[in-house]
Amino acid sequence: xxxxxxxxxxxxxxxxxxxxxxxxxxxxxxxxxxxxxxxxxxxxxxxxxxxxxxxxxxxxxxxxxxxxxxxxxxxxxxxxxxxxxxxxxxxxxxxxxxxxxxxxxxxxxxxxxxxxxxxxxxxxxxxxxxxxxxxxxxxxxxxxxxxxxxxxxxxxxxxxxxxxxxxxxxxxxxxxxxxxxxxxxxxxxxxxxxxxxxxxx
Length: 201
What we know:
By secondary structure, this protein is mostly beta strands. Helix content is 14%, strand content 41%. The longest helix has 17 residues, at 184-200. The model has no long low-confidence stretch (mean pLDDT 91).
C-alpha cells in the first residue's frame, strides 16, 4: 500500500521492448536505499516489482495489461517519474490509501498558474467520473491530490509549490497523459450498495 506522497523524482535510464512486455531501468537513490529483489516501488502511481537492483538504479518488468492501462508505455530514456516506496506499518498516512493499481489514464487539459500555486485541469474517463467528487481524493501519476472541481469529463486539482517542484506535474503540459487511480473506498461502497440492492430485489 502507498500513500501518494512522492519520495523523489526519478529518471528512466533504459527501456527494453519485450514484445508483450517491457523492462525498465530507473534511477532513484532514495527508493533504492535498502531495496531488494521482490520489493514494490510505485512508478508514476503504478506498483512495480523490483527485479534487479544495483547502486541507485533498479529494474522492473511491465506486463502488457499495465502498458495498456497506464501511461508507462509512453516512457522513454530520460523521462522523469514519481517514485514512492510502500508505506511501513505504523507510519503516518500523509496522503490517502493508494494501491498502485491504475484505473485509467487522463490527459492534462490546461494549466492555470497563480503567483504561488497552480490549478491543473485533467480529463476524466467516463467510467471513472462517478468515483470523483469535490474535496475527495484522487491519485494522479502517483500523487495524492484533493479534487477542487469534479465535472463529468474532467476534474481540477490545485498544486502547491512543493508539488510543482518535486513531481512530474510541475513539468507536464497540455496533451500529456497521466495515470489515474480513484479512491478505493468509493469503489468498495459502490460494490456494497449494489449487493444490497440486488438482495432487496
